[in-house]
Amino acid sequence: MIEQSAAIQESLKSLNFIKKNKRLAVDMLDEMCARYTVQPANRRWTMAMFYGMINIAAVNALVIHAHNMQKEQPAKKIKRIDFCSELHMIW
C-alpha cells in the first residue's frame, strides 16, 4: 500500500511537470508567432489558418537552425527577424 501510494505521488509529480512545461512551450510559441508574423490582415479563415501554419513552420525552422548552429558556433545567435529575412531570400 505504501509503495503504491509513493508510485502514485511520483506519477502526479511527473504529470504536473509535463503540464507546466507544455503550457510554457505553447505560450512561447504563441508569443514568437505574434511578434513577427507573416499574416496580413484578411477576413478569410482559410488564409488565416494557412499563414498560422507558415508562422509555426518558421518558428520550428528557427529552433532547428539554432540547435544546429549551437553545435557548430556556440557563441553565435541569430534573431528571428534576421532568420525569417534569410529564409525569405532562399525561397
Question: Which labels suit this protein?
Answer:
mainly alpha, 91 residues
Overall mean pLDDT stands at 78
Q: Pick out the low-confidence regions.
A: none
Q: How many beta-strand segments?
A: 0
Which percent band covers the strand fraction?
A: under 5%
Number of domains: 1
Rg estimate, integer Å: 19 Å
Order of helices and strands: HHH
**Class computed from helices, strands and strand pairing:** mainly alpha
Net shape = flat
Number of helices: 3
State the distance separating the first and last CA atoms: 61 Å
Helix content: over 70%
The biggest sheet amounts to: none
TL;DR of this structure?
With 91 residues, the protein is an all-alpha fold. The chain has helices spanning 2-35, 45-72, 80-90.
Provide structural commentary.
The structure is a single chain. The chain is mainly α. It has one domain (2-90). The protein contains three helices and no strands. It has helices spanning 2-35, 45-72, 80-90. The protein is flat, with a radius of gyration of 19 Å. The model has no long low-confidence stretch (mean pLDDT 78).
